[in-house]
User: Fold these one by one.
Assistant:
Number 1:
Amino acid sequence: MKKHFIILALTLASLSANAQTLKLKNQEFELHNVTGEIVTFQGKKALKIERDLTAIPFDSTRVEATVDEPHYARLLGLEDFENGTIEVKMYSQLKVPAPYSGIAGFIGLFFRVQEDDSAFESIYVRPKVGRSDNQLFRNHTVQYFSYPDYKFDTLRKIAPFRYEGSAPVALNEWFTMRIEVNGETAELFINDEKYSSFVVDKMLGKTKKGFVGLYVDIGTIGYFRNLKVTKRAYLEKKAEDKVSDI
């Protein structure tokens, strides 16, 4: 058993050492199971990433098992994010031809990511349905998941709609995603919204701090710029702010 852990640690260290890094302004990103480059997009420098389907193959007959995996760009130099704000501008574009009929522009954020990618929290969006005329589709625009035990399909089965919601986002346009993380809760704000679009009132992961990352999934070409991360101490909620279960 000890030998196994030593080999695993050496393998992870080797993979990390060989990972591609990209620099955008004063920030450096390490690519984990995504391909990427720094590009000029619509007149501004941006980080462009796509999921690397060679590194982590996708199987349309095993969707739950082959999506929501650690395919993301890790922000280097900040390994202990616990509570605070993560804000970034993002743009989601669909790949043509589509590698899978169910693509929806999956794009978002990872946080509290462990060094070896074994666990993390995430909130992402499906911009394709953000302005759908079908309210049921709109209700699937935002997704929370906790890797590895609580991915999207698992959460739909054990807690329908509790970890999904709507948000005013769309494909082929820039929007700002801001996540406020505090203890076991996380709130999502889009653009300059005064109030959050989506609340995770109790995150399910056991990780308390870690890295921050930029995420895309199958069929998405994602562009990111202006990432800002602000750490803050845990803020205890006032008694009058707490709401009992309905």
Note: Confidence is low (pLDDT under 50) at residues 1-15.
Number 2:
Amino acid sequence: MSITGNKTVVSSGHAEPTPSTTVIIAPSLSPQVKKPPSPSPQGITPPSPSPQDTPPSLVPFTAGVLLIISFVVIFILKARWHGKSEQDQQDVEDDHIKHVPGMPVRFSYQELCVATDNFNERLGRGGFGSVFKGKLGDGTQIAVKRLEKRGQGMSAFLAEAEAIGSLHHFNLVRLIGFCAEKSSRLLVFEYLSNGSLDNWIFTNVQGSFLDWQTRKEIILDIAKGLAYLHEYCRHTIIHLDVKPQNILLDSSFHAKIADFGLSKLINRDMSQVQISMRGTPGYLAPEWRQPLGRITVKVDIYSFGIVLLEIVCARRNVDQSQPESAFHLLTMLQKKGDHEDGVIDIVENLDEYTRSDREEITRMIKVAAWCLQDDPERRPLVSTVLKVLEGVMEVDSNIIYRFSHAMISSPPGNNHISSAPPPASVLSNPR
């Protein structure tokens, strides 16, 4: 055997030469001799193996490796996606809320802290949170409601903000914007400088008193706002908590309905809804006595009738400071109802009103009695009430002056009944 260059020649002692084989020497390795294949029988040389031919033993090995790699890749991607969902779900939802068309302005929590001087001046407190006074950078005064019941998720809050933001009427408090950061839920409303109606219509509150013309305009404003909610917006909205504390007054004493914290939004093709009792004692319609009774917009009509009486008579519908005979306003109205011209006698200080004022007051009291009928079917729609107040229609001549007194307690303040938590479609304005 001899080695020449990179070729190794093997002498076998046979007369015929054997094929030579070239061995490639790897770097840093010593040359190795590869034995040539034995000659085939009968001098037939077998074909050289093709590079595409793979030994059968490598097929299952290769498939197994590919399968393992696939499993590893899928596992890694799944783990990364799961971790993102766990850690960033809130951020994803927050990002989604930014892209809802027609949404009010979105504020950061820090912006509202600055605007309210770290929530320094409280305007009021209700069943769903507190309201604070603030001012934006451009000088716009705002009322910020900080929701304190945190059971509501981001999607429910988004639905709520969308619903409130879609309400556009002069006699409804306007939603300017909102804040949704982690557990913080805040709603930003226009600020109304004269506060709530109850601070003005009752003579024993802060010594304030409104003249008859202003009271009449306030009644019209409330009716217009309710008519929009019941009959003219995209969905029918039953407010469910109409009372003087939820009527706000701007600098010109225009009235705007606020606090949709107990409201129910229903499709326009639905005339009634079955819900548990909610509202404020003293303003609750008789049909609430039925367990899970079928409720319509007429419960708001009843509450409006109570508010109308309180505005006209300048006193609360239940006043414990009054003698027993005048303790309950509806009891007085029921006694005077037998003589319709005598219903005005439930109003105190009649000497302060002119003859024309007295005629309008009598008309208003009759409208209130119409709204307070025990049978919801006998109560008018708010649009009908507006026509009567504007002198286009006459009051129903078949009013029944018999009123239910099952729920006569009406504690002052913001006490309310809500035997079930509000659903996702519930709206929340300042209380």
Note: Residues 105-190 form a domain with the Phosphorylase Kinase; domain 1 fold (CATH 3.30.200.20).
Number 3:
Amino acid sequence: MRGAPLIPEPTDALLRRLVESRGAVPLGFELFPPRSAERREALRETVERLAPVAGKGFSVTMGAGGTTRTGTHDTAVEVARIAGRPVTAHLTALGLSREDALAAAEGFWEAGITRILALRGDRPRAVQGPLPPGFAHAADLVAALRDCHPFEISVAAYPEKHPEADTLEADIDHLKAKLDAGATSAVCQFVLDPEAYGRFLETCARHGIDAPIVPGLMPLEGWSRLRGFARENGAHVPDWLNHLFSQAEQAPETMPYLSAVATVEQARRLVGYGAPALHVYAMNRWPLALALARLLGH
């Protein structure tokens, strides 16, 4: 109605505050070793695009049983060279002997890669029979790495518990053991329900855990694949996301826009629950990850 007072603009809009914070919430981006020359070129472009907004740097995955050890090493070194940012190399121990796991760590150190995400990992599907004697638990790997060099060690955390854990409480006890062994932070498996991350932080605090716990954020592209992956790993799939993307299937042209909006909403809520940073599973792609960074003030 003409002459009616305007509704005042909200002064506590979280997304606005994030945009105006000039990147106060740091971002790190997870990559994986490429398997072809074409994909290596795509990875280089991704690193170049994301480096300016990667305050927490990059991380490079390793396949189950150390199957991409050489690729992980070479990719981590290349990413560090291109980006000029710190790089964390994943070290997946299950399937490797103690000697091979520590040799991989030594190779990282000699190449200037001083950050390691220490993982027990999954059993290699292609390997039949008993595995080489090695590190049965990630906490044992953390302790061994601490004895080798002054690595900056992070470990994995599972807000909705690891699929093999009996209970969430038992899984958090295991997380505490990894931190007590010498890790200084934890990176979470991605969640599709940010409230699960908030509850996880509260439960960890009750267990005396005060190390930074960084949530994993998966850009919501390729919903059918992502939903299947979430279910395999025991992550709750919210009804609203299912409804949103099922509607988008009727108009595929809208999918990129809905993916972007939903990803930003996930990030906003994770920050609202107290995320000290965001670990973005970039999947070697940069457009949505960079758009997210811009919306968060970077």
Note: The chain is about 45% helix and 15% strand.
